[in-house]
Structure formats: C-alpha cells, structure tokens
Specification:
alpha+beta; single chain; flat
C-alpha cells in the first residue's frame, strides 16, 4: 500500500509527517505553503 501525505510547511505539518513515518512505510510526502500555489 502506498500513502500520499500532503501537509503544510509549518511545524505541525512536519510533526504529522514524523508520526506518519513512524507508523507507516512507503509514504510519499508532499508539502505546500498557504499561498496561491494551492488554489
């Protein structure tokens, strides 16, 4: 199973990535700012 994890580039986003990476393997992480590039 492959998991795609999208989060923001702030501290809680990276903390979520850390926790997900601890419990799951084969995860692809993507980060996004809060700006217009996500529209």
């Amino acid at each position: 199973m492959k998991i795609y994890h999208l989060s923001h580039t702030d501290l809680d986003g990276y903390a979520c990535q850390f926790i997900v990476n601890f419990y799951f393997k084969n995860v692809k992480f993507y980060n996004s700012n809060y700006g217009k590039e996500i529209n």
